[in-house]
Design brief:
CATH topology of the largest domain: Rossmann fold
Shape: elongated
Structural class: alpha/beta
Number of helices: 16
Strand order of the largest sheet: 1-8-7-6-2-5-4-3
Radius of gyration: 29 Å
CATH class of the largest domain: Alpha Beta
Distance between the termini: 99 Å
Helix content: 40-55%
Number of domains: 2
Largest sheet: 8 strands, mixed
Length: 347
């Protein structure tokens, strides 16, 4: 059997499909799946950024775009052209669909709930698997997230969830997903949408598609015919982030992941450890930047401990480093006096 015709989507088609759905007063919940470091976050960034740009053009009443979306959405909803323009201007007034990594990238269940209950927003739960994994189904916050997804489907929000594997998401979440994109390798992804069904419980036709995929595995195919999958809609290419975008996005990811590690798992990152006031104090003490004991009392007050507790900890740390445990020997004043004496002896 020959390969089916592979439909290739221009990236703007993907963006316009999402924007049309949002203008039609529907939420657009989509999932991007793929291995670690393969480009899921990059694709999510591009989608969020481009959707925001598309709305920005609409807010400027770009004539071609206004005509395109009016024919696709406005006319179908029996809106007059004037009403459609007013709808767009209302979104502009509300400053809807703004995109920034700092605002849109989320890692906690609390932030997920806030995003889903807002209106006309773009959010990227970058590790949805940690929020809605099926083994944690009975956690209260996860149940709340699923309830919110069911109850607030008309808030016209764009949610771009990134996961390692779509099949591991809770069944109810799968049922609410409007589009799944599988990143096969950097820059290339497969677009899937659920089948329109009446009696079938599984809109994603998992059993049939799994059978097709197992056949590929048995035959050791290196270039499988993805058009055979019943949910396949096309391929889309996407570029890497610019260096500036990558730097900003990575910094936001690192900062937000650090919060999750510390709050949920009690793990501190190396950056946070370096920011420990005691570590800073030890560095200053050994460099002679602590002038006298008055500074230590101030640090003890800041840390909420007694001066004896602090000096005891300092001595233990000096002992670990096999250094002189007489704290006053490191004071800046003491080092200055020693320098003066050595200068006099040298005359």
């Amino acid at each position: 059997m020959g390969r089916g015709k592979i439909q290739k989507w221009r990236f703007i088609k993907l963006v316009q499909t999402i924007v049309a759905s949002l203008l039609n007063k529907y939420d657009f919940f989509m999932v991007i799946e793929g291995g670690t470091g393969i480009g899921k976050s990059t694709l999510a960034y591009h989608i969020g950024h481009k959707v925001a740009l598309e709305f920005k053009k609409l807010y400027n009443l770009d004539p071609d775009l206004m005509e395109y979306y009016y024919e696709r959405v406005g006319r179908k909803n029996r809106l007059s052209e004037e009403d459609f323009v007013n709808k767009i201007l209302a979104l502009k007034e509300e400053k809807a669909y703004k995109f920034s990594p700092q605002k849109c990238l989320i890692y906690t269940q609390d932030d997920m709930q806030k995003a889903l209950t807002s209106w006309n927003s773009i959010s990227i739960p970058d590790e949805l698997i940690n929020m809605t994994f099926n083994r944690d189904f009975y956690s209260e916050k996860q149940k709340d997230i699923i309830k919110i997804l069911n109850m607030f489907r008309d808030h016209e929000n764009l949610t771009i969830a990134c996961v390692p594997a779509f099949q591991n998401i809770d069944t109810q979440i799968k049922g609410l997903t409007k589009m799944k994109i599988t990143v096969k390798k950097r820059g290339i992804a497969i677009i899937h949408t659920p089948n329109s069904v009446i009696y079938c419980k599984d809109k994603w036709d998992s059993a049939t598609n799994e059978k097709i995929e197992r056949e590929w595995i048995m035959k050791k195919l290196t270039r499988p015919d993805y058009s055979r999958l019943t949910t396949f809609r096309g391929l889309v290419k996407f570029p890497p982030l610019t260096k500036a975008q990558e730097k900003t996005y990575q910094q936001v990811k690192n900062d937000k992941r650090a919060v999750v590690l510390k709050e949920d798992m009690g793990i501190e990152t190396q950056e946070e450890k370096k920011a420990d006031p005691f570590d800073d104090l030890m560095e200053r003490l050994l460099n002679g930047a602590v002038r006298n004991g008055t500074y230590l009392r101030g640090v003890a007050d800041m840390m909420g401990i007694t001066i004896n507790t602090l000096t005891g900890r300092i001595r233990r740390e000096l002992g670990k480093q096999k250094k002189n445990q007489l704290i006053s020997a490191y004071y800046g004043e003491a080092k200055a006096r020693k320098h003066d004496v050595e200068g006099i002896d040298g005359l």
